[in-house]
């Protein structure tokens, strides 16, 4: 574990695997921290250098005052990459993590050689949708709404076992409100349609068939814009890395081999 500083904001980073291994960098979703990748990473080849981080306002990273812009979050990723000397990154972005990936490619195309889009799109929702979410969360806090969010995050089969859902609901409920709302504002302002259209690097896209946050049609539309290959994960919601870690790790491993 280490902390990397970007303009006074300390970011929690985990950098594992051989330092000379091919680099895979992971960015997680709204209301989750880097543990969302634990199960998937356990299925990846051991010779990879795996870097993951808690975006600002989440996990063990600092929570500066919001709102944030997606460019702030992409800049955090760039500073982490530069501090660690990362090159030729395959960037894996889940939901807002995918927007961070697009932002990183737009700002620092020299860093990224391939992109994996998991349950994400070039533009997620509308500014009105996110402003409504910000207003209701400001009024109630996160915890009272967290059970409803689980219906978007997980497929029906997974939700049948309350003890499997509990850690993720707790993770969401314990996210700092300022950090969560700051990231909602970043999503509201993010539109990478043109970046996606201009994509020249290889892209892999995948989505759960029961994703209630970024539905399959939305993810597939972004995949088309990027010229990406597209995979539908059965019996999965918005976090297929949690529900189907072996399958999603295999898709990434095969993609890494094809793009090596
Ligand atoms: O609504 C959710 O919690 C799902 C989600 C949307 C953007 C993101 O990162 O997660």
Automatic annotation (TrEMBL):
One Pfam family linked to the record: Abhydrolase_6
GO biological processes: beta-ketoadipate pathway
InterPro entries, per database record: AB_hydrolase_1 (IPR000073), AB_hydrolase_fold (IPR029058), AB_hydrolase_sf (IPR050266), PcaD/CatD (IPR026968)
Residue ranges of every copy of the AB hydrolase-1 domain listed in the record: 29-250
GO molecular function ontology, one term from the record: 3-oxoadipate enol-lactonase activity
PANTHER family (UniProt xref): MONOACYLGLYCEROL LIPASE (PTHR43798)
Protein name: 3-oxoadipate enol-lactonase
């Amino acid at each position: 574990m280490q902390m990397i500083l970007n303009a006074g904001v300390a970011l929690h980073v985990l950098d594992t695997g051989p330092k000379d291994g091919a680099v895979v960098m992971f960015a997680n979703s709204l209301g989750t921290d880097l543990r969302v990748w634990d199960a998937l990473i356990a299925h990846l080849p051991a010779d990879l250098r795996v870097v993951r981080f808690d975006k600002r306002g989440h996990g063990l990273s600092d929570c500066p005052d919001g709102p944030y812009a997606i460019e702030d979050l992409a800049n955090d990723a760039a500073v982490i990459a530069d501090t660690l000397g990362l090159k030729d990154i395959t960037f894996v972005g889940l939901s807002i993590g995918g927007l961070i990936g697009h932002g990183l490619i737009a700002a620092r195309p020299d860093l990224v050689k391939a992109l994996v889009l998991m349950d994400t799109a070039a533009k997620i929702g509308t500014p009105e949708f996110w402003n409504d979410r910000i207003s209701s969360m400001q009024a109630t806090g996160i915890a009272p709404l967290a059970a409803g969010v689980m219906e978007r995050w997980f497929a029906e089969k997974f939700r049948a076992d309350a003890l499997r859902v509990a850690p993720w609901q707790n993770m969401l409920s314990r996210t700092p409100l300022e950090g969560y709302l700051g990231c909602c504002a970043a999503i509201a302002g993010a539109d990478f349609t043109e970046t996606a259209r201009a994509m020249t690097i290889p892209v892999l896209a995948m989505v759960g068939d029961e994703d209630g946050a970024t539905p399959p049609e939305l993810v597939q539309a972004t995949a088309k814009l990027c010229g990406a290959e597209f995979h539908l994960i059965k019996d999965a919601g918005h976090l297929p890395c949690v529900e189907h870690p072996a399958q999603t790790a295999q898709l990434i491993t095969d993609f890494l081999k094809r793009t090596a």
